[in-house]
Amino acid sequence: MKIKSLVIDGIGGIQHLELSFIDGVNVICGANGIGKTTILNVIADAFGGNESSKLKRNALCKIGEYNIEVDAFQNGNYKRKYRHNTVAKFLPYEEEYKGGLNEYSEDFFYFGINRNIEYTKLDSITSDSKRSSYHTERMALIGIQANDIKNWFINRYLFVDKAGSLTEAQIANYHLAVKLFSVLDDKINFKTVVAKSFDIMLTTPKGEIFFEYLSSGYKSCIYIIMGMIKEIEYRNSETPICAEDFDGVVLIDEIELHLHPIWQAELVKALKIIFPKAQFILTTHSPSVLQTLEKEEIIALAYDEDRNTCLKELNLGKYGLQGWTLEEIMKNIMEMPATTSKLYQDTLKKFDQAMDMENREEILEQYELLKEMLHPDNPLRKLLAIQVAEWED
Predict the structure, then answer these.
(1) 207-210, strands of its sheet edge to edge
(2) Residue 57 carries which DSSP code?
(3) How far apart are CA 358 and CA 361, in angstroms?
(4) Which of 254, 255, 266, 347 is most buried, judged by most C-beta within 10 A?
């Protein structure tokens, strides 16, 4: 299944927006509050049905609506499916149920911003959870849960070397999961499962560590990737498939959450490699993520002259944003008015004013402050020194 297009009218803060998606990675970016999460919620709404919708109409509209276009695989062929839903409720406590593409929710994964993994003590290992249509439709709205990741992994660990216990796909997925612990740092590796407590132990340069005590960034990555692998198996229990063969849709809100900038881009690369057939629709505030993308993978949003959300025309070349600096992306894509502190801006302004007035005492005072603020290798240091030279004794 692949989502082809989406039209939103009068939902949340969006008056009117038309989007098209490619089959691979789609990354939605733009200023804070511009409607990135609303877009994901609208898509998720189309695949839900058993939970009250998160969507609310825009306060300025009598009714909200959206149209979604999907290519779904049926009877050996892709067929174009359309869904139109209206959103009439505005008050937070008013309930409304939508859905319509519920039958395809099995191939739809949604990850919200809550991706933490807490320590869970297992007294025993259970068999695989069964995913009914109710569960998959509910997960379309509330997101993939991590509470059974540990049980899934240990179950595979216990049976991977028992002939006939697991299918070839399940064995391949287990070995892939083992590698995931090293996805960000090859110095971290899976060691064993403790027999008495069913705890997953890892080796690190600082010694052994419980799986749940990894950094928030590590756990966020494992939550997404291992969460997808186990959910693919649970939803295809009769005929388990390899993770790399999954060709559904995955939504991830704020892909960079909890991650060091270096790791943010690495996670996107890992998703492309591990799930080459999946369609990803992601949101981000991270220039580090945007720097690594192809131009067709970037969906930039902006405000028009009436402060309505619209597509931003970037006119990118062959290499997208890969030649842009982080500062240029923050200003031109994220619409940050400045990338330096207000104190620095005010100090630089006072320095310039002092130079215009030829106020020697003020020039030297502000110059000393700027030297304290600037990075040791900032080229502005040399320019300021040249300007100040004639005013120094």
Answers:
(1) 189-194, 199-204, 207-210
(2) B
(3) 9
(4) 255
Span 116-128, pLDDT tens digits: 888 888 888 988 8
Contact 339, 333 (CB under 8 A): no
> In the structure encoding, which two tokens stand for residue 274, read together?
């591990």
Rounded Cα–Cα distance for residues 343 and 329 (Å): 22
Return the closest-CA partner of residue 301 out of 24, 29, 13, 7: 29
Per residue in 270-305, pLDDT tens?
Answer: 899 999 999 999 999 999 999 989 999 999 999 988
Alpha carbons 81 and 100: distance in angstroms, whole number: 10
Rg (CA), the chain: 25
Residue 351 host element (H or E): helix 342-357
Phi-psi region of 260 (alpha: psi -120 to 50; beta: other; left: phi over 0): beta
Q: How far is CA 94 from the centre of its chain?
A: 29
Q: Could you tell me which residues are beta bridge partners of residue 293?
A: none
Q: Is the pTM of this model over 0.85?
A: yes
CA gap 80, 83 in Å, rounded? 10
Residue 241 amino acid letter: I
Asked whether 108 and 141 are in contact (CB, 8 A), the reply is: no
